[in-house]
Amino acid sequence: MNSSFLFGLSTMAYILAMIIYIIYLAFRKTQIGITATTITITGFISQTLAIILRWKEFADLSGMGFLRSAPLTNLYESLIFFVWCLILGYLIIEFKFKNRSFGAFITPIAGIALAFIDISGVSKEIQPLVPALKSNWLLAHVTMSFIAYAAFALSFSTGLMYLIIKTEKRREPSYLFWTITFGIFIVVFAAMGIDFLTFKVAVKPEEFIKSYMFKASFLNPSNIINILSWISTIIIIFLVWRYGYILKTVIEKFNISSEILDEITYKSIAIGFPVFTLGGLIFGAIWADQAWGVYWSWDPKETWSLITWFIYAFYLHSRMMRGWRGKRVAIVAVIGFMAVIFTYLGVNLLLSGLHAYGEL
Amino acid sequence: MEQEKKKTFVDKIWDFFASVKLAVIIFALISLTSIIGTILEQRAEPAKNIKILISLFGESLAPTMYNLFEKFGFMDMYHSWWFVGLLILFSTNIVICSLDRLPRIWKLVREPIGPMTEEKLRRFAINRELVLKGKPDKVKDDITGAIKRAGFSYIESKEEKGYQFFSQKGNYGRLGIYLTHFSILIILVGALIGIFFGFKGHLNLPEGSVSDAAYIERNQAKPLGFEIRCDNFDVEFYGRSDMPKEYKSWLTVIKNGREVLKKSIVVNDPLTYEGITFYQANYGLINDRLGRGVFIFRVITNDGKAYNLNLRLGDAFQIPGTNFSGKIVDFSPALRIDESGRISTYANQMNNPAVFIEFSESGKPKYSGWILKRHPETWQLPEGHRVEFIDYWGVEFTGLQVRKDPGVWIVYFGCITISIGLFIAFFTSHRRLWVRITEDKNNTRVLVGATSNKNRSAFERKIDRIISLMQKKPEGGK
Asked: Which of A290, B8, B113, B121 has its CA 20 to 30 A from that of A344?
């Protein structure tokens, strides 16, 4: 049994769990709920084993000792760890709040992240470390960053759910905000799916994102496909906007009060923010000081982390201001996670800089 | 009259700086402008950014956009006057905000708590009421025991018909947020000290060379106050690949003509002397020295004797104790032999150093071939002698990042305090608890009131635990 078998097992478990959580929402039978939880836990255990195995494989291969061989050195490994943290966070919430309904929202994120790993053809090989990554700070900096990212992902889901159930009218700004955000997410994933179907056989997986992302849709040389892509984007967003209330009625069935959603959003950020400050920014700065001789160099990754940090600081401060409860802060939580996604993926894919380790 | 008017004006400015709204606006401004700074490459060649702008705005608009961005300092925006201005505004906001709120919070922190009237107790967010059997004097110990077991030390006050116990915990936790804010200022002060009293430079030091300066912006020399020498430099690769595993420089610090410190440095492990730190950053080949380096060989004869040889291109050497000799004819820093046997140099780095040697016996040419540093199987000669290619010394330079930053410890200190501050601010809460017991028809009526500035639900659960502790004892005792 090797790590990739176990990773595959956990991916399947999460996707299966996602389906069962959705069925659970529709029928609300306890039995179905327990099945969904059991499958999620099974996936989590096999993923944990897979990470440990890969860690060991890496340690044996590099001979650098266990502490420095954490499997967190490229995009593939970090995404795996992100999903692991996310599922762990979800399971904690499920047991603490005795509510399974979030499962239908969290397992899709886990599933999408893992599907992203497969679709984008991120390199799964164990790669040797460049000298700059050989440091004890790797483990602390990367694990803590990802624990924070996972906490932020949770706040994103609950923040979005809060917006969905709290908005009443179609013309309301918060309604527009969540439907457009949701629509864009659907469009991006759909476009990547189309890229995948179009180019899968033609190119090496490693080059996929850098050279082929959106080439089948928005960046296609043909003007017709280009225009069609934009038109379908508008149609998708319009449909989400027009029929968004269906999601609302679905979530309202969950019996989650908006207060609990707001509380989980706040608590996730209250955990994510200090962890991100310490592990992401401070440990990152100390490591940069050791490896590059500057603790802060306004490299794009650093700057985007700072932007993310400011957005969550914005969230925390605006919550204290009167009149900034509820929907407005939920919007900030959703925007915050978009900044997280950009810090994590966008910087590596679109901008250049010192932090080029997350390369594919 | 005029005095009062003036005061309101100052008040207005004060209120402006003390508002959370300003903080939120500054967060937004810093974030939004920083985004531009991550898209445009900072301190880069103009051509690079024009290319980026063309892809964003199109051929025709790009030059105008470039000039516009250039004018506002976006090509080096984190050092522009307005960005520094934003940071100053940010600091001022933190200072004024803290000063504005401190007296009120300080009062909450220092204020000792006292007994409360029943009316007030009932008004607390968390309040509970229960009746215990027995008179107050009898159940008193159970109640105080429960409070103590929950980790609260209490003050007791005797009242008309009973007692009141009150307690508070974590009152200093309210200062966590100040520690956090203050730490940001400490970090900024540390950064300023670094900017004004330190420097960031670079030094490309060839093997065997000595330098008494590093080079900062525009190649300006910055004297170190001592000399640094690179004794050797070496790269280790992963297996047969060209992916560097580790690169290492052997450095010596020389002060007043005496060697005072020797250390080998790698990435993540720098050398520091007199506050100046040398980081392994990069490396390269010095092209005009390529033919003038020293080949270091170790020759092991077929009877097992080893000799070290230092030679140059064109030199001839004898394998000691034999009439076997070799002549160094050619050299390549990165030799490649393709399938058809063609020879080429594939990189301008010492990725695969190779030396071509013509061997002869008693003056008669015998054979010739390449000896490769990274391929020990090429070291063996048919006669059983071995020519080990140890190094080609003196043709590489080590690229050192040189930095002096007296503010870095202040920055780190700020990092520690901000961590502590955040921990206190998010994970502790100021909890206050009052328990009032009064006699009620030979039984005891217990009234509990409590507040917490954070995480009320957790405190509520704790209060319920305390109450169940109070109830258990008397029942079990009977």
From this structure: A290
Taking Cα atoms as reference points, which of A310, A291, A145 lies closest to residue B268? Answer: A291
Q: Is the pLDDT of residue B478 over 60?
A: no
Residue A29 covered by a domain = yes
CA distance A181 to A163: 11
Which range of residues forms the domain containing residue A17? 1-128
Query: Which pLDDT does position B50 carry in this prediction?
Result: 84
B434-449 b/e with 16+ CB inside 10 Å = b? bbbbbeeeebbbbbbb
Q: Which two tokens stand for residue A167?
A: 């908005």
Q: In terms of DSSP H, where are the helices of B150-269?
A: 176-197
What DSSP element (H or E) covers A113? Answer: helix A103-119
CA–CA dist B442, B139 (Å, integer): 11
Question: Going by C-beta distance under 8 Å and a sequence separation of 6 or more, which residues neighbour residue B140?
Answer: B163, B437
ipTM over 0.90: no
Which H or E element spans position A266?
helix A258-275
Q: Which of A305, A314, A352 is the best mutation test for B, with the most CBs of B within 10 A?
A: A314
The letter for the amino acid at B391 is D
**Per-residue pLDDT reduced to its tens digit, B413-454:** 999 999 999 999 888 889 999 999 998 888 889 999 999 888
Q: Is-above-0.80 flag for pTM?
A: yes
Helices (H) and strands (E) in chain B, counts: 10, 22
Does position A4 have pLDDT exceeding 70, yes or no?
yes
Cβ pair B157, B115 in contact under 8 A = yes
Tokens of residue A176, six digits: 């527009």
What is the tally of structural domains in chain A? 1
A21, part of any domain: yes
Tokens of B238: 């992963």
Hey, what amino acid is at A170? R
| Beta-carbon separation of B20 and A295 below 8 A | no
Other CB atoms within 10 A of residue B110 CB: 9
Size of interface A-B (CB pairs under 8 A): 107
Distance, CA of B472 to CA of B470 (rounded, Å): 6
Q: Is B235 helix (H, G, I), strand (E, B) or coil?
A: strand
> How far is the C-alpha of B44 from the C-alpha of B46, rounded, in Å?
6
Distance CA A292, CA A287 (A): 8
User: Domains of chain B: which residue ranges?
Assistant: 2-108, 115-170+429-477, 195-284+397-418, 294-395
DSSP 8-state assignment for residue B367: E
φ, ψ (nearest 5 deg) of residue B403:
-145, 140
The pLDDT assigned to B57 comes to 82
Pairwise pLDDT comparison (B110 vs B477), residue with the higher score: B110
User: Across the interface, do A132 and B415 touch by the CB < 8 Å criterion?
Assistant: no
Residue A108 resides in a domain: yes
Contact A310 B31 (CB under 8 A): yes
Amino acid in the structure at residue B18: A
Query: B210 near B228, Cβ under 8 Å?
Result: yes
In this structure, CATH architecture of domain B115-170+429-477: 2-Layer Sandwich (3.30)
Cα–Cα distance measured from residue B44 to residue A25, given in angstroms and rounded to the nearest whole number: 54
A208 pLDDT band (50/70/90 cuts)?
Answer: low
A282–B419 C-beta distance less than 8 A: yes
- Taking the mean position of all CA atoms in its chain, how far away is CA A44? 16
Candidate from B38, B241, B267 with C-beta closest to A303:
B38
**Cβ atoms < 10 Å from Cβ of B27:** 22
Q: List C-alpha distances in Å: B112 to A230, B64, B117, B151, B200.
A: 65, 65, 16, 18, 52
Q: Which of B276, B241, B280, B244 is nearest to B261 (CA)?
A: B276
In a domain, A215, yes or no: no
Interface test with A, best of B19, B33, B38, B45 (most A CBs within 10 A): B38
